[in-house]
Amino acid sequence: MAFGGKLFACILLLFYSVVMSYDIIKALHLIAVIAWFAGLFYLPRLFVYHVDAPNKAAKEMLTTMERKLYQFIMMPAMAATWGFGIWLLVLNPGWLEFGWLHAKLTLVVLLTGYHHSLKYFHKQLAAGTCKRSGKFFRLWNEVPTLVLIAVVFLVLLKPF
Questions:
Q1: For position 73, what pLDDT does the model report?
Q2: Which of 23, 30, 59, 134 is most buried, by the most CB atoms less than 10 A from its CB?
């Protein structure tokens, strides 16, 4: 076999191992989840600072930070979380028979709704029309923590 054929075979083998390796996809899924949660934890904290900001310049800076966090970190991380999660289900369709997975997916759907609520609040804060207080955003910031705790226990313990 010529060098080009061997190179092609190596690339094909590498591609196949990446595409079909459960452990690699699971690792990528976990990395995406961590990145997504980093944004879910931080953005509401920025909202607290935004609501309490003393002047227009600070509010403008926070608006830019919020937009970039949402657009460049949170959206790709959420998409990757969903994409790799679906990929894991394609590799293991039998999981769909278990109640713990249905509970986890329900929580992930709710978390996705929460994620989009943050975009709604960001738009209000940017427009200066948000009526929510810093206390509200401190409490709203606890939602992903509760979801994370529940999902971790569901995935690790598989109680039903």
A1: 97
A2: 59
